[in-house]
Amino acid sequence: MSISSFLQGRAADLRYIEAAARTIGDVAEGMKIVVEKSTVPVKAAESINTILRANLRPGVNFQVLSNPEFLAEGSAIKDLLHPDRILIGGDQTPEGQKAIKELCWVYKHWISDSKIITMNTWSSELSKLAANAFLAQRISSINAISAICEATGACVSEVSHAIGTDTRIGSKFLEASVGFGGSCFQKDVLNLVYLCESLNLQEVANYWYQQVIEMNRYQRTRFVRRIAEKLFNTLTDKKITIFGFAFKKNTGDTRESPAIYVCKHLLEEGAHISIYDPKVNQQQIIEDLTHPDIMDKPEKVLELLSFHTNPYSASERAHAVVICTEWDEFLHLDYKKIYNSMLKPAFIFDGRKILNVDELLAIGFQVETVGRRTT
After folding, report:
1. What was the pLDDT predicted at 81?
2. Does residue 253 contact residue 277 with C-beta atoms inside 8 Å?
3. 184 is catalytic
4. Is there a contact between 66 and 88 (Cβ–Cβ < 8 Å)?
5. pLDDT at site 10
6. CATH topology of domain 231-369
7. How far apart are the C-alpha atoms of 49 and 21, rounded to whole Å?
8. pLDDT greater than 80 at residue 3
9. Where are its TM segments located (predicted)?
10. pTM for this structure?
11. CATH 3.40.50.720: which residues of the chain?
């Protein structure tokens, strides 16, 4: 996602929020509690309040609450039933506190009081952005360490395990990979950057943008550069098989998927891309790779793409297989069969660090994995 596309998306979000607020103002009767659920730009609740109160009708009153959701794709029901916490923000007035208690009552039907955190509206909105920014920061940080590991011979899995055993840090989101994707991490970090810039906190904006967003981009381009170097510094007319196009397993969502950017760089070098993903359909992949922000010559892209319904046909006569999504299915493939069908030397580039490197080496593969120097 470019800065310009982010700003366009943010403007669209604000338009939708304004339209929703005006619709509520037009049809509401009596006392209403408006709950802001989705991740929104900080101060969205303030904007909603301003619109509603400027259009008040006799007998109508509003309280606007911020109640950000923390549901992850692939585990949303579990996250809803067993959340780490529930955040509810509202005005620090008697009316605002009464509205907060009403929403708390809803959640108390299945969630204990200890997990319900109440705060002011600003804090609630900022907490969601900050949570996703911190998670993205952890991924970018371990990916930065993975580059050092590949250069020195250290193993990023061993390093991340050692770091994660420190109770002050913990082990979650310390898995090195080709980079993070999805609809939330990059968008929320960019929202935080935009907020910092609007508050004239340029150094803070630079920190989040350069150290998190730029590191994520660097990890993707570094991974592709490694593919090119191992394939004798040329990708033109070589067949590269992509295993996985979703941004993570157990979802068909491709928004900001690292696979998009890996394919973009490979296509720019003239590689023929063969793609297999168990959930993502062909049309979605075409739309992603021919988007103007990704490629400026969509007709050329289509000439270089092929799509497959199983991993074995996708890898036939391929120079390399690239793992872009950590689907469990990829753990149990017949890699001996895949190896026999590929051109030699046969390469596997594990961008998710999920495969057994020693077993692949024994088969005969040349193996490259994130955060480890193997061949």
Report:
1. 94
2. no
3. yes
4. yes
5. 58
6. Rossmann fold (3.40.50)
7. 8
8. no
9. none
10. 0.88
11. 7-119, 231-369
